[in-house]
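[Primary structure, fold]
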Amino acid sequence: MHGPASSGWLLVALCAVTGAYCLLRMRGGAEGERGAAGGEALMGFGMAVMAVPAAVFTPPAWAWPAYAVVFGAAGLHALWAARSGAHHLHHLVGAGAMVYMSVVMAGSPAHAHGGGGSGVPLLTGALLLYFAGYVLLAGVRLVPVAAVAGSGGAGAARGGSTGAAGWGDRPELARACRLSMGMAMVAMLLTL
């Protein structure tokens, strides 16, 4: 995942901030929402670590298999959680992509030092198409929709007060978080 240093650091910052926000989202919401936020935090921090420029830090040989194990376990958790919601299937694809990138990086030490591309082009292309489509869909979901007259707002819909939701409970921020991670995944797959 190691491209030019400046874009690598921007990717690290984007993924780390996204991961931190997802950790904060774990403090509120329903159990399923907290679980999804935890999975997204893991993805954000994992992508941040993978995107650190090789000129600054080259992970030891054992790091890539360790990433594959961690994200393989996250994929199994997402598969189990997919029984309750389709969004967990996206987590499964994301975890699978992280395992794939880890395996490619483990098998191609020259690539970790700025060498040529590696990986299975068909699989990389399929993942790129999936995440590009996800980014487009997530971007469309961020487009504001006119509020329905008399809806009462988010607080009334939950049975609480009609006051403004906390910044950690805002669905548009969660969507922006998912959009940024999707864009980061596209960028990482492009450098593979």
Remarks:
- The first helix runs from residue 5 to 25.
- Confidence is low (pLDDT under 50) at residues 111-116, 148-164.
- The chain has eight helices and no strands.
